[in-house]
Amino acid sequence: MRCNEAFFDGMTVSENLDLLTASVKSLSLNSIGRHVLICADQTLPKCCDKADSLIAWDYLKRRLKELGLDAPTIDRPQFVFRTKANCLRVCQNGPILLVYPDGVWYRSATPDVIEQIIQQHLIGNQIVQEYAFCIQPLMLIPAEATIPVEIAEAEMAEQSVQPAN
Ligand code: FES
Known about the structure:
Elements: H1 3-7, H2 13-26, E1 32-39, H3 50-66, E2 79-85, E3 97-100, E4 104-106, H4 111-123, E5 132-135, H5 149-159
Helix pairs in contact: 3-4
Bound molecules: FE2/S2 (inorganic) cluster (FES).
FE2/S2 (inorganic) cluster (FES) binds next to loops.
């Protein structure tokens, strides 16, 4: 058995890279402007009721779509990517919602609060101070330090485990 076959579920490395490239394109990962993560559908709901977390998640998804923020457009090439995180490890005063790269952590992210975050933060670029409990922006990598996709793919293929005899 080839190790890379086991890891990639029977696909060759290049087939797997093709799938990854397709995912990058279909999800428009190169056009993400902000990434919103919310604690929802938890395995161990500690910060809020699981039902409330799902209401919050559904609201976030629906509003981003209604406002056209969930996909890139010609007028607004960068969009908001969303992720339902099982737990963001704060585990109190939830649902917990996090906006990157700004690094703003919000508490009590009910639909009303999410609407404020969307309008004031995601659209208006102003932090909703009342609900923000931590602000720790991510360090941005200068564009010249990023690796072009083709080089990254070649490096991944090079680093993958070679077939055993
Ligand atoms: S359960 Fe919500 S942050 Fe951990």
